[in-house]
Amino acid sequence: KAGAFILGTGRALPSRVLTNRDLEKMVDTSDEWITQRTGIKERRIVAEGESNSKLAISASRKALEKAGVAPEELDLIIVATLTPDYPMPSVAILVQEALGAHRAGAFDLSATCSGFLYALSIADKFVREDPARKILVIGSEVLSNKTNWEDRTTCVLFGDGAGAAVVTGSPDGRRGVLSTHLHADGCLWHLLTLKGCGSLYPPCDPRIPREDYFIRMQGREVFKNAVRAMESVAFEALRANGLSPSDIALLIPHQANIRIIEYLRERLELPEERVFVNIHKYGNTSAASIPIALDEALEEGRLKEGDLVLMVSFGGGFTWAAVVLRW
Ligand code: ACO
């Protein structure tokens, strides 16, 4: 039986575009290297006055409008993010206040690039309990402020943005989320970190290496784990629903690297037109990548009623997840 049904989606990207050519002037890299190794051509970066919560609010307004849902109808707001404006209040609280969603509970969730699928799976449980509930699920990141712009191995990868979805209970028990699959393995957490300014790594502490205030990643090791985990959770999700890959109308993978996406596409033996890719425009926007992709896929008419969608993510922690839904 289906659970969370998506009533409307929205996205917000910062206005400033940072191209590979721009990066060539900042670090020892080339458009050719970045394009070949990652598939990224440009990414969006917040400008003065833009912030995580502002992107989240803008994406949410669009999602609510498409859903035909008023902010006062919302029961819950969940924001998946690893780059909140502040430790307190949460981004979800800032969204709640800006929208005037007075009835809604609100909290942030930290599960790196899998955050949106983790958040969607929580929303799924809430609407399975009471299908009348309306929940705003957001993935929003400003990774540019946590990027070491002198480290060419990471600074070419990330971008900023937000995506949002308004969900409620399935209208017919058929359409909506069919299953959710969440995983984590802390054994290799040290391969991908952002330690400052956590409470153990206070701001401007001279004893802490400067690099620890930014995202640090052992890319090759993360890559190997990402392909393995995403393949495994994709097949787990298909098996759980008695599906084969050919049943999937659209795969929406986390956009971290075009080579990871290609690997997954080949393992699932899907034709290119059944895999959504927008990494060339936005880079890796962590928790925002899947809801941004979903919103664009809908705008491009890539989904019709009854289509099966498989969403798959992988991120720091490690965390990885999959959600199967019938559109
Ligand atoms: N420009 C030019 N050369 C570079 C650059 C760059 N921007 N970055 C690295 N290189 C060099 C390296 O120094 C290395 O040189 P060497 O061979 O002389 O030592 C060479 O290119 C190859 O480096 P690798 O790290 O082996 O390159 P790889 O093919 O693995 O690509 C990448 C690196 C793109 C980071 C890849 O490993 C990757 O995508 N990893 C996974 C990222 C991911 O999935 N993250 C998920 C979650 S992110 C999150 O949770 C926030």
TrEMBL record:
Residues 107-186 form the Beta-ketoacyl-[acyl-carrier-protein] synthase III N-terminal domain. The active site is at C113, H254, N284. CDD domains: KAS_III. Residues 255-259 are annotated as: ACP-binding. Pathway: Lipid metabolism; fatty acid biosynthesis. GO terms for biological process: fatty acid biosynthetic process; secondary metabolite biosynthetic process. It catalyses: malonyl-[ACP] + acetyl-CoA + H(+) = 3-oxobutanoyl-[ACP] + CO2 + CoA. Coiled coil: none annotated. Residues 238-327 form the Beta-ketoacyl-[acyl-carrier-protein] synthase III C-terminal domain. Its EC number is 2.3.1.180. GO terms for cellular component: cytoplasm. It is found in: Cytoplasm. One of its GO terms (molecular function) is 3-oxoacyl-[acyl-carrier-protein] synthase activity. Catalyzes the condensation reaction of fatty acid synthesis by the addition to an acyl acceptor of two carbons from malonyl-ACP. Catalyzes the first condensation reaction which initiates fatty acid synthesis and may therefore play a role in governing the total rate of fatty acid production. Possesses both acetoacetyl-ACP synthase and acetyl transacylase activities. Its substrate specificity determines the biosynthesis of branched-chain and/or straight-chain of fatty acids. Homodimer. NCBIfam families: fabH, PRK09352.1. The last Arg residue of the ACP-binding site is essential for the weak association between ACP/AcpP and FabH. Belongs to the thiolase-like superfamily. FabH family. This is Beta-ketoacyl-[acyl-carrier-protein] synthase III. It comes from Thermosulfurimonas marina. The gene is fabH.
